[in-house]
Amino acid sequence: MAKTATKSAKAKAAPKAAEKPAAKAVKAPAAKISAKAAAKPAAAKTKAKPAKKPGVRLSMLRPSVNNMTVRVFARAAGLDAAETDAWGHTRSPEFLARNPAHLTPMIEDKGLPRGVLWESCAIMQYLSNKHGLEKFYPKAPAKRAMIDSAMFYLVGTLYPYIARATYPALGFPQYAGEVGHSDAHPDRKSEAQKAAEAAIAEPLEVFHSFFRDGKPFIGGKNPSIADIRLAATLEFLAVIDYTLPKWAKEYMAALEKKLGKAYAEPAGDVRGYIAHVRSQAKA
Ligand SMILES: N[C@@H](CCC(=O)N[C@@H](CS)C(=O)NCC(=O)O)C(=O)O
After folding, report:
1. Cβ neighbours for 50, distance < 8 A, ≥ 6 positions apart
2. Per-residue pLDDT tens for 162-194?
């Protein structure tokens, strides 16, 4: 989402979010104890219980795919995340004192030099490193470099096109200096939006042909943090009825199938927001 949330965008998404409790613990599927294990004697119970990963506090905005990325990752990795809905609070003095960039997702962790960390990819890298989650972020330098390259390419090249193409329809403000942010004639803004939409196909194909390279996921057989970042990002394209190539539809479906509820639940918030803005546009 753009760096400044407009009143109109807030008004559209805020009601649902604001009604919810401030912090909700996301129960890690891995931490659940089966009925069978629970019935065993104390010693066996302790053995069957997976090592509990310390909780993580996450400030987030529900309609955002940047936030969806970390929310999916936390669930898929079995991290106990306490989510705080930051809608309408990112520019409060209290938030700015901790995070002068006023950006979400943001995690809080005592081990961090400044206590907080923002940028979705940096958060996933940090948590993977901290908890040894090699399944999502391989340790081998060459493999890791490919994941990093895919994520930086996404944030630096693909995402700006997707933002320019979808933010007008999402009701999100665009970035200063861009046509969409200016007081240019609506025709010029529409041309800029269409140009951005047309530019998406090329970097998208690079993820397919270069990064996936015949594998189910960028990470290989299993989704990596780069895959979570890519699939979440593509969710926004539904708001402009963008025709995704067949491979991308199959890729997103495969990732959702693999991650199950960990993906579907945060995706539901983004999809719900898109359905909401679309219904408003029709009305
Ligand atoms: N590149 C960043 C983008 C973060 C971002 O743009 N966050 C937006 C929501 S999508 C935000 O928190 N905006 C609130 C504000 O600027 O006040 C990431 O991947 O985390």
Report:
1. 30, 31, 78
2. 999 999 999 998 888 999 899 999 999 999 999
